[in-house]
Amino acid sequence: MSLTDELNGDLKAAMKARDKQSLSVVRMLKSALMNEKINAGHDLTADEEVSVVSRELKQRRESLSEFESAGRQDLVDGVKAEIAIVEKYMPKQLSDEEVQQIVAATIKQVGATGKGDFGKVMGAVMPKLKGKADGKLINQTVKSLLN
């Protein structure tokens, strides 16, 4: 079942349950996917769908940190609920240890020896972990293993 089909089913369920929060987030995801499909000019692949959903998730996490630093608890609660809904559509996230193992293997694979090879390692590891781990975690792991 494609992500679009899953979103359509969840949209109907949210309408029947009168769940305004879920309905809003599912509509937002459908809209983002449709906009990306129009921009790309073709049906989205599974990887492209994951990148759209991860972009939306990243935006919400950034909003969350901004609201927390501003002390806006009313907005923090709403964004946390949105994040929980968006995370349902992401692939299973890898643990820190799994990310570390993949990054270490990639470092050996590309023959990286120090900080100067950071870009080469990131270029090789991101396609492997796209959508499966947070970009910040990957970045920090690569930096720590290259030091």
Automatic annotation (TrEMBL):
<dbReference type="InterPro" id="IPR019004">
    <property type="entry name" value="YqeY/Aim41"/>
</dbReference>
<dbReference type="InterPro" id="IPR023168">
    <property type="entry name" value="GatB_Yqey_C_2"/>
</dbReference>
<dbReference type="GO" id="GO:0016884">
    <property type="term" value="F:carbon-nitrogen ligase activity, with glutamine as amido-N-donor"/>
</dbReference>
<protein>
    <submittedName>
        <fullName>GatB/YqeY domain-containing protein</fullName>
    </submittedName>
</protein>
<dbReference type="InterPro" id="IPR042184">
    <property type="entry name" value="YqeY/Aim41_N"/>
</dbReference>
<dbReference type="InterPro" id="IPR003789">
    <property type="entry name" value="Asn/Gln_tRNA_amidoTrase-B-like"/>
</dbReference>
<dbReference type="Pfam" id="PF09424">
    <property type="entry name" value="YqeY"/>
</dbReference>
